[in-house]
């Protein structure tokens, strides 16, 4: 299986205020240039504003989350205004639209859209008991547990941006290559193409997944496909570090060594070491590995997504 990472822009949902649309409670927006000018080069950003969609209007009284009989979204100034069910029903209604998406970018700190650090206040609104997801984001996660999700603000960091794009590309590739034909052989082929990239993100979990795929007798085909997709997305959510990337690059070199001269082998080894020590960018190693790739007749190494255009190589993140 030779996976092409990018064919056309990949559909990804986004909190509408991040596009610069004035839909916030105060009539403002939270425009993210990283999203509209950088990520839009490879992502087709489809806007969602849950609070406007449930009819709250702009401007509107602000809401916040309180811990009551359950987590509830109520008016900050008037707790009798309760939009909990309305927000969750909206998330349920947009399931068919979200099913077409390969990722979601959500606005941080919003009681609807925030993913991780939204205050959950005491019932009287006095102090935060905990922090967590907003109601729309939480419901989205329930419907689509493997969908790559990230907060707008965090995408300013190059490494987080790269990780999000890597997950979006993988999720998209899954829907193009496996979802239409989820036979176990196809699932294994997909895993095999991603193997070295997965190793660069988390070696123990990748090996565990490899063991699972060596005996799939306990799984029905669809069940196996969902299990493997979940595990792959989990592995990719771990940031790739330089040590594990180096390990994966050395494995890749191992498949090419017999087709290289002694000098070429030494030069490639030196380059990988230089990358490990931070003296050379990843792109330099990938370029050289790809240069030698045609010499190998082995499909395995040709199929490796690790050696294809990574997000960093698309000019969307810094090299690490
Ligand atoms: S954070 Fe979400 S609900 Fe709030 S304005 Fe932005 S898109 Fe709308």
UniProtKB/TrEMBL annotation:
One Pfam family named in its UniProt record: DUF1722
Domain named DUF1722: residues: 195-309
Phylogenetic lineage: Bacteria, Pseudomonadati, Pseudomonadota, Gammaproteobacteria, Cellvibrionales
Coiled coil region boundaries: none
Protein name, UniProt field: DUF523 and DUF1722 domain-containing protein
